[in-house]
TrEMBL record:
Keywords: Iron, Metal-binding, Monooxygenase, Oxidoreductase. GO terms for molecular function: phenylalanine 4-monooxygenase activity. It comes from the Bacteria. PANTHER family: AROMATIC AMINO ACID HYDROXYLASE, PHENYLALANINE-4-HYDROXYLASE. Belongs to the biopterin-dependent aromatic amino acid hydroxylase family. This is Phenylalanine 4-monooxygenase.
Length: 297
Protein backbone atom coordinates (compact mmCIF):
# COMPACT_ATOMS: atom_id res chain seq x y z
CA UNK A 1 0.00 0.00 0.00
CA UNK A 2 1.41 3.32 -1.00
CA UNK A 3 1.36 5.58 1.99
CA UNK A 4 0.22 8.74 0.30
CA UNK A 5 -3.32 7.39 0.87
CA UNK A 6 -3.23 8.46 4.52
CA UNK A 7 -2.31 11.95 3.40
CA UNK A 8 -5.87 12.75 2.27
CA UNK A 9 -9.16 12.63 4.13
CA UNK A 10 -11.21 9.80 2.57
CA UNK A 11 -14.13 10.87 0.38
CA UNK A 12 -17.25 8.68 0.20
CA UNK A 13 -20.56 8.77 -1.65
CA UNK A 14 -23.52 8.29 0.71
CA UNK A 15 -26.52 6.11 -0.21
CA UNK A 16 -28.45 9.22 -1.28
CA UNK A 17 -25.67 10.17 -3.70
CA UNK A 18 -24.28 13.06 -1.68
CA UNK A 19 -20.56 13.31 -0.97
CA UNK A 20 -18.98 13.12 2.45
CA UNK A 21 -15.38 13.89 3.42
CA UNK A 22 -14.29 11.92 6.48
CA UNK A 23 -12.17 14.19 8.62
CA UNK A 24 -10.27 12.40 11.37
CA UNK A 25 -10.99 13.26 15.01
CA UNK A 26 -7.66 15.11 15.21
CA UNK A 27 -8.40 17.33 12.20
CA UNK A 28 -8.63 21.05 13.12
CA UNK A 29 -12.02 21.27 11.38
CA UNK A 30 -13.49 18.07 12.86
CA UNK A 31 -15.83 19.80 15.33
CA UNK A 32 -16.89 22.62 12.97
CA UNK A 33 -20.11 21.61 11.16
CA UNK A 34 -20.01 24.65 8.88
CA UNK A 35 -16.49 23.81 7.69
CA UNK A 36 -17.43 20.16 7.24
CA UNK A 37 -20.44 21.06 5.12
CA UNK A 38 -18.22 23.25 2.94
CA UNK A 39 -15.67 20.45 2.60
CA UNK A 40 -18.44 18.11 1.43
CA UNK A 41 -19.72 20.68 -1.06
CA UNK A 42 -16.23 21.36 -2.44
CA UNK A 43 -15.48 17.63 -2.77
CA UNK A 44 -18.78 17.22 -4.64
CA UNK A 45 -17.62 19.80 -7.20
CA UNK A 46 -14.60 17.63 -8.01
CA UNK A 47 -16.57 14.38 -8.07
CA UNK A 48 -19.02 15.92 -10.53
CA UNK A 49 -16.36 17.61 -12.64
CA UNK A 50 -16.45 16.87 -16.35
CA UNK A 51 -12.98 17.17 -17.97
CA UNK A 52 -12.78 19.87 -20.60
CA UNK A 53 -15.45 22.02 -18.97
CA UNK A 54 -14.82 25.09 -16.78
CA UNK A 55 -13.98 24.21 -13.17
CA UNK A 56 -16.93 24.96 -10.87
CA UNK A 57 -16.40 27.86 -8.49
CA UNK A 58 -15.74 26.92 -4.87
CA UNK A 59 -17.42 29.14 -2.29
CA UNK A 60 -15.00 30.40 0.34
CA UNK A 61 -15.78 32.53 3.37
CA UNK A 62 -14.14 35.88 4.12
CA UNK A 63 -12.31 34.10 6.93
CA UNK A 64 -10.88 31.60 4.44
CA UNK A 65 -9.71 34.34 2.11
CA UNK A 66 -7.98 35.86 5.15
CA UNK A 67 -6.19 32.56 5.78
CA UNK A 68 -4.88 32.66 2.23
CA UNK A 69 -3.78 36.30 2.57
CA UNK A 70 -1.96 35.61 5.84
CA UNK A 71 -0.19 32.46 4.65
CA UNK A 72 0.58 33.94 1.26
CA UNK A 73 2.23 36.95 2.91
CA UNK A 74 4.23 34.87 5.41
CA UNK A 75 5.41 32.39 2.78
CA UNK A 76 6.37 35.14 0.36
CA UNK A 77 8.73 36.62 2.97
CA UNK A 78 10.30 33.21 3.52
CA UNK A 79 10.54 32.45 -0.19
CA UNK A 80 12.85 35.40 -0.70
CA UNK A 81 15.25 33.82 1.73
CA UNK A 82 14.78 30.12 1.05
CA UNK A 83 13.39 29.54 -2.48
CA UNK A 84 15.49 29.05 -5.59
CA UNK A 85 15.88 31.97 -7.97
CA UNK A 86 14.06 29.97 -10.66
CA UNK A 87 11.05 29.51 -8.35
CA UNK A 88 11.05 33.20 -7.37
CA UNK A 89 11.14 34.26 -11.02
CA UNK A 90 8.27 31.90 -11.81
CA UNK A 91 6.27 33.34 -8.90
CA UNK A 92 6.73 36.83 -10.35
CA UNK A 93 5.72 35.55 -13.75
CA UNK A 94 2.53 33.86 -12.54
CA UNK A 95 1.28 36.72 -10.37
CA UNK A 96 -1.13 34.86 -8.10
CA UNK A 97 -3.52 37.02 -6.08
CA UNK A 98 -2.14 37.66 -2.59
CA UNK A 99 -5.33 38.75 -0.83
CA UNK A 100 -7.85 36.06 -1.83
CA UNK A 101 -7.95 32.40 -2.78
CA UNK A 102 -7.87 32.09 -6.56
CA UNK A 103 -10.29 29.67 -8.20
CA UNK A 104 -8.60 26.69 -9.90
CA UNK A 105 -10.03 27.86 -13.22
CA UNK A 106 -8.22 31.15 -12.76
CA UNK A 107 -4.96 29.39 -11.83
CA UNK A 108 -5.11 27.45 -15.11
CA UNK A 109 -5.95 30.62 -17.03
CA UNK A 110 -2.80 32.25 -15.62
CA UNK A 111 -0.58 29.20 -16.16
CA UNK A 112 -1.63 28.01 -19.58
CA UNK A 113 -0.17 30.90 -21.59
CA UNK A 114 3.14 30.44 -19.72
CA UNK A 115 3.80 26.69 -19.74
CA UNK A 116 0.62 25.06 -21.04
CA UNK A 117 -0.44 23.66 -17.66
CA UNK A 118 -4.03 23.65 -16.45
CA UNK A 119 -5.53 22.61 -13.13
CA UNK A 120 -8.23 19.99 -12.63
CA UNK A 121 -10.12 19.53 -9.36
CA UNK A 122 -9.56 16.49 -7.13
CA UNK A 123 -11.82 15.57 -4.21
CA UNK A 124 -9.03 13.76 -2.38
CA UNK A 125 -6.53 11.07 -3.22
CA UNK A 126 -6.09 10.51 -6.96
CA UNK A 127 -4.73 7.09 -8.01
CA UNK A 128 -1.01 7.38 -8.72
CA UNK A 129 -1.24 6.48 -12.36
CA UNK A 130 -3.87 9.14 -13.03
CA UNK A 131 -2.24 11.81 -10.90
CA UNK A 132 1.16 11.44 -12.53
CA UNK A 133 0.00 10.32 -15.97
CA UNK A 134 -1.92 13.49 -16.80
CA UNK A 135 1.12 15.63 -15.99
CA UNK A 136 2.27 14.49 -19.43
CA UNK A 137 -0.80 16.29 -20.85
CA UNK A 138 -0.09 19.45 -18.86
CA UNK A 139 -2.82 18.74 -16.30
CA UNK A 140 -2.39 19.02 -12.55
CA UNK A 141 -4.88 17.47 -10.10
CA UNK A 142 -5.55 19.83 -7.24
CA UNK A 143 -7.63 19.87 -4.10
CA UNK A 144 -9.81 22.96 -3.82
CA UNK A 145 -10.51 23.27 -0.08
CA UNK A 146 -8.47 25.39 2.30
CA UNK A 147 -7.26 24.43 5.78
CA UNK A 148 -9.36 25.27 8.84
CA UNK A 149 -9.12 28.92 9.89
CA UNK A 150 -8.21 27.98 13.49
CA UNK A 151 -4.78 26.76 12.34
CA UNK A 152 -3.77 28.98 9.40
CA UNK A 153 -0.16 27.86 9.48
CA UNK A 154 -0.84 24.13 9.67
CA UNK A 155 -2.73 21.57 7.61
CA UNK A 156 -2.73 17.78 7.94
CA UNK A 157 -3.68 17.47 4.24
CA UNK A 158 -2.56 19.12 1.00
CA UNK A 159 -4.95 22.05 0.58
CA UNK A 160 -5.29 24.76 -2.06
CA UNK A 161 -2.38 26.65 -0.46
CA UNK A 162 -0.07 23.69 -1.04
CA UNK A 163 -1.44 22.96 -4.50
CA UNK A 164 -1.35 26.52 -5.77
CA UNK A 165 1.36 28.38 -3.85
CA UNK A 166 3.62 25.32 -3.83
CA UNK A 167 2.92 23.77 -7.23
CA UNK A 168 1.46 26.46 -9.51
CA UNK A 169 4.37 28.79 -8.88
CA UNK A 170 6.76 25.99 -9.85
CA UNK A 171 4.59 25.09 -12.86
CA UNK A 172 4.99 28.67 -14.11
CA UNK A 173 8.69 27.90 -14.73
CA UNK A 174 9.51 26.52 -18.18
CA UNK A 175 12.22 24.33 -16.72
CA UNK A 176 10.36 22.97 -13.68
CA UNK A 177 7.17 22.40 -15.67
CA UNK A 178 9.19 20.39 -18.18
CA UNK A 179 10.33 18.14 -15.33
CA UNK A 180 6.70 17.65 -14.23
CA UNK A 181 5.79 16.62 -17.77
CA UNK A 182 8.69 14.19 -17.96
CA UNK A 183 7.54 12.61 -14.67
CA UNK A 184 4.11 12.19 -16.26
CA UNK A 185 5.57 10.56 -19.35
CA UNK A 186 7.55 8.18 -17.14
CA UNK A 187 4.41 7.26 -15.17
CA UNK A 188 2.63 6.49 -18.43
CA UNK A 189 5.54 4.43 -19.77
CA UNK A 190 6.13 2.10 -16.83
CA UNK A 191 3.83 -0.86 -16.39
CA UNK A 192 4.47 -2.47 -13.00
CA UNK A 193 3.16 -0.89 -9.82
CA UNK A 194 6.68 -1.21 -8.38
CA UNK A 195 8.14 0.90 -11.19
CA UNK A 196 5.32 3.45 -10.87
CA UNK A 197 5.96 3.77 -7.16
CA UNK A 198 9.66 4.29 -7.87
CA UNK A 199 8.86 7.10 -10.35
CA UNK A 200 6.54 8.72 -7.80
CA UNK A 201 9.13 8.54 -5.03
CA UNK A 202 11.66 10.30 -7.23
CA UNK A 203 8.99 12.97 -7.77
CA UNK A 204 8.38 13.15 -4.02
CA UNK A 205 12.05 13.78 -3.26
CA UNK A 206 12.43 16.35 -6.06
CA UNK A 207 9.34 18.31 -7.12
CA UNK A 208 7.74 17.90 -3.66
CA UNK A 209 10.73 18.04 -1.31
CA UNK A 210 13.73 18.91 -3.44
CA UNK A 211 16.50 21.28 -2.41
CA UNK A 212 19.46 22.54 -4.39
CA UNK A 213 22.60 24.60 -4.20
CA UNK A 214 21.57 28.03 -5.45
CA UNK A 215 23.22 31.42 -4.84
CA UNK A 216 25.94 29.54 -2.93
CA UNK A 217 23.53 28.19 -0.31
CA UNK A 218 20.90 25.52 0.15
CA UNK A 219 17.55 26.61 -1.27
CA UNK A 220 14.27 24.76 -1.84
CA UNK A 221 12.33 24.22 -5.05
CA UNK A 222 10.00 21.46 -3.77
CA UNK A 223 6.33 22.44 -3.40
CA UNK A 224 5.98 20.60 -0.09
CA UNK A 225 8.69 22.69 1.55
CA UNK A 226 7.77 25.97 -0.10
CA UNK A 227 4.11 25.74 0.98
CA UNK A 228 4.87 24.75 4.56
CA UNK A 229 5.30 27.57 7.05
CA UNK A 230 7.09 25.30 9.53
CA UNK A 231 9.09 23.10 7.21
CA UNK A 232 10.60 25.97 5.27
CA UNK A 233 12.47 27.08 8.40
CA UNK A 234 13.75 23.58 9.09
CA UNK A 235 14.98 22.10 5.83
CA UNK A 236 18.55 23.36 6.06
CA UNK A 237 18.97 21.35 9.26
CA UNK A 238 17.71 18.08 7.79
CA UNK A 239 19.76 15.07 6.66
CA UNK A 240 20.85 16.35 3.24
CA UNK A 241 22.05 13.70 0.78
CA UNK A 242 23.46 13.88 -2.74
CA UNK A 243 20.99 13.59 -5.62
CA UNK A 244 20.75 9.89 -6.50
CA UNK A 245 17.83 8.42 -8.43
CA UNK A 246 18.29 4.85 -7.15
CA UNK A 247 18.36 5.99 -3.53
CA UNK A 248 15.42 8.42 -3.91
CA UNK A 249 13.32 5.80 -5.66
CA UNK A 250 13.78 3.33 -2.82
CA UNK A 251 13.80 5.60 0.24
CA UNK A 252 10.87 5.21 2.56
CA UNK A 253 9.11 8.39 3.64
CA UNK A 254 6.54 9.26 6.25
CA UNK A 255 4.16 11.94 5.06
CA UNK A 256 2.80 12.57 8.55
CA UNK A 257 6.08 14.10 9.79
CA UNK A 258 8.50 16.72 8.57
CA UNK A 259 10.55 15.26 5.76
CA UNK A 260 13.90 14.64 7.45
CA UNK A 261 15.88 13.13 4.56
CA UNK A 262 16.30 15.49 1.61
CA UNK A 263 18.26 15.23 -1.63
CA UNK A 264 20.32 18.10 -2.95
CA UNK A 265 20.90 18.89 -6.59
CA UNK A 266 24.00 20.98 -7.28
CA UNK A 267 22.13 23.15 -9.79
CA UNK A 268 18.98 23.15 -11.90
CA UNK A 269 21.04 21.77 -14.78
CA UNK A 270 22.20 18.94 -12.50
CA UNK A 271 18.56 18.18 -11.60
CA UNK A 272 17.61 18.13 -15.28
CA UNK A 273 20.57 15.96 -16.24
CA UNK A 274 19.98 13.39 -13.52
CA UNK A 275 16.25 13.35 -12.78
CA UNK A 276 14.92 14.75 -16.06
CA UNK A 277 17.02 12.23 -17.95
CA UNK A 278 15.82 9.40 -15.69
CA UNK A 279 12.14 10.25 -16.28
CA UNK A 280 12.74 10.73 -20.00
CA UNK A 281 14.24 7.27 -20.45
CA UNK A 282 13.20 4.94 -17.60
CA UNK A 283 11.20 1.78 -18.08
CA UNK A 284 10.33 -1.25 -15.95
CA UNK A 285 13.66 -2.93 -16.70
CA UNK A 286 15.89 0.04 -15.99
CA UNK A 287 14.04 0.66 -12.73
CA UNK A 288 14.37 -3.00 -11.70
CA UNK A 289 18.13 -2.66 -12.25
CA UNK A 290 18.26 0.50 -10.12
CA UNK A 291 16.31 -1.20 -7.31
CA UNK A 292 18.69 -4.18 -7.46
CA UNK A 293 21.75 -1.96 -7.09
CA UNK A 294 20.60 -0.30 -3.85
CA UNK A 295 21.47 -2.19 -0.64
CA UNK A 296 18.13 -3.02 1.02
CA UNK A 297 17.41 -2.31 4.65
FE1 LIG B 1 2.06 18.22 -3.75
Amino acid sequence: MFEEAQYFAPVATRDDGTIEVHLGAGHPGFADPVYRARRNAIAALAVGYVPGTPIPTAEYTAQEHEVWALVSRELSLKHHKYATVEYLAATERLGLPAERIPQLQEVGDLLEPLTGFRYIPAAGLVPLRDFYGVLADGLFHSTQYIRHHSTPLYTPEPDVIHEVIGHANALASDRYSRLYRLAGEAARRVESSEALEFVSKVFWFTMEFGVMTDQGELRAYGAGILSSYGEIEEFRGMDIRPLDVAVMGTTHYDITKYQDVLFRAESLKHLEDVVGEFWATCDDESIARLIAEVPQG
